[in-house]
Write a structure and sequence with these properties.
By secondary structure, the chain is mostly helical. The protein contains 6 helices and 2 strands, in the order ααααββαα. The protein has a two-stranded antiparallel sheet with strand order 1-2.
Length: 151
């Protein structure tokens, strides 16, 4: 005889399996979206550089040490990506006023404008996809993603 607790456990296991499947699809789609977005900014921009650029833009200013800590990347990798972003005229670098050994990184006005256009496009696509959900359902999904981000 199957108990109601066993059925609930099977239901939860099945639901978690579906969630994992859909998360994998979301991650794959996200990687594709990063590639497409990087190419829209500049055909030579790599995905890693795109991620750094979006962070720099959102932060306003940062430095290579903060980027290495935030993205858990080797400083040499960050240095190469920063150099590429500078070569593509997507970021500007100036000496830190408090510590001359550090360089303050900021997105260029053209990079900020391109990223803003991408965010508008992505926002419109998200709104279209989520149109069939209620605000409560979107809040529930947001809560689930917040919890998943804390794992």
């Amino acid at each position: 005889m199957v108990t109601s607790a066993a059925v609930m456990s099977q239901d939860v296991d099945s639901a978690l399996g579906d969630l994992q499947t859909h998360l994998n699809l979301i991650f794959a789609r996200t990687r594709t979206l990063w590639k497409e977005s990087a190419a829209r900014i500049d055909p030579e921009l790599q995905v890693g550089g795109y991620k750094l650029l979006t962070f720099i833009d959102r932060a306003g200013t940062t430095n290579a040490h903060e980027l290495a800590d935030r993205f858990e990347m080797d400083k040499s990798v960050i240095s190469r990506q920063v150099r590429m972003l500078e070569d593509l005229n997507l970021i500007e670098s100036r000496p830190d006023e408090r510590d001359g050994r550090l360089r303050v990184l900021t997105a260029t006005p053209s990079a900020r404008a391109a990223l803003a256009a991408l965010r508008r496009d992505h926002g419109q696509r998200l709104r279209m996809v989520m149109a069939e959900l209620t605000a409560d359902e979107i809040h529930a999904a947001s809560k689930a993603f917040r919890l998943l981000s804390e794992i």
